[in-house]
Amino acid sequence: MDLYQIRYFLTIAEFGSFTKAAEQLYVSQPSLSAGIKKLEQELDVMLFERGGRRILLTSAGRLFQEKAQAILAEYQSIRQDLEKLKAQPTLRIATLHTLRANSMAKIIGAFHQQYPKVVIEICNGYLQDLQDWLEQGEVDLTITWLREQDDPRKSQFLFHQALTLAVPQNHALAKASSVCLADLDGQPYIERINCEFWRTCPKMFESAGVKPKIVYSSNNEEWVISLIQAGMGMSIMPIWSDLANVTYVPMTDLSLSRTIGLQWRSKQGLEAVNWFCDFVMERDWQVAG
């Protein structure tokens, strides 16, 4: 059963005539009759009483008329909703916990000024969360950690970022030209449980014979930054360029880095994804050079 058959049926029912219905629909009467005959064969019922001066509905026709009107109304409602979606598309973005909200907010704000009709929904999660959400169609785009095995046809490099020790500006280690893991032994440490590398940290400290004093654990990057700025402790974290009262100290026996970029599904057909990808390439992500 096709929508054109439903329209044929409802128009005939309204005008009580195949001839008038054909004129109203701008189709030939043989085409109209063939469409109704096919519909009756599919439904295995007679929908009209033919032969009189006016075409009448059978009992099956009256029942089908009610259902057909509902089907057509629902279809028209769907079309209207889709037109609204095209006029005001929604872009669903997922970001890593370890990307700063401050940087993301500035970029989203600038994107909104250029594309004011695009509604943006943002969520954040761990690396595996982002992969799952993208594969399952729950988000349209992720800002995530790119690895060598990622498909370049569905990903785009944004920036490379090193991780090192971040300490309060007035801490004794802030004046050191470099530190090693042993220097963290007994030091107040803020554990970043949202970090892509955090599961390796206990083994890393253990193998170096180091036991930092864990004073706080958080899956919120802004909390970690604020606690360092308040002098509560130190943490191994990504290097950002705009953090007041925080000093990054190079580590001689630890080399961590990550590549951040965009990932999307191929052939999803959402134009807003392309707009965002092109836009963010020239943005300042506040990453130290």
Inertia-based shape: rod-shaped
* Poorly predicted tracts of residues: none
- Work out the count of structural domains: 3
Query: Which fold name corresponds to the CATH topology of the largest domain?
Result: D-Maltodextrin-Binding Protein, domain 2
Q: What is the makeup of the main sheet?
A: 7 strands, mixed
Helical fraction equals: 25-40%
Helix/strand/pairing class, anyone? alpha/beta
Number of helices: 9
Please state roughly what percent of the residues sit in beta strands, choosing from under 5%, 5-15%, 15-25%, 25-35%, 35-45% or over 45%: 15-25%
Radius of gyration: 32 Å
SSE string: HHHEEHEHEHEEEHEHEEEH
**Number of DSSP strand runs:** 11
Summarize model confidence as the mean pLDDT.
Answer: 89
CATH architecture of the largest domain: 3-Layer(aba) Sandwich
In short:
With 289 residues, the chain is of the alpha/beta class. The chain is 39% helix and 22% strand. It has helices at residues 3-15, 18-25, 29-43, 59-87, 101-114, 127-135, 201-207, 221-229, 271-280, and strands spanning 48-49, 56-57, 90-96, 119-125, 141-145, 155-168, 188-192, 213-218, 235-238, 246-249, 256-264.
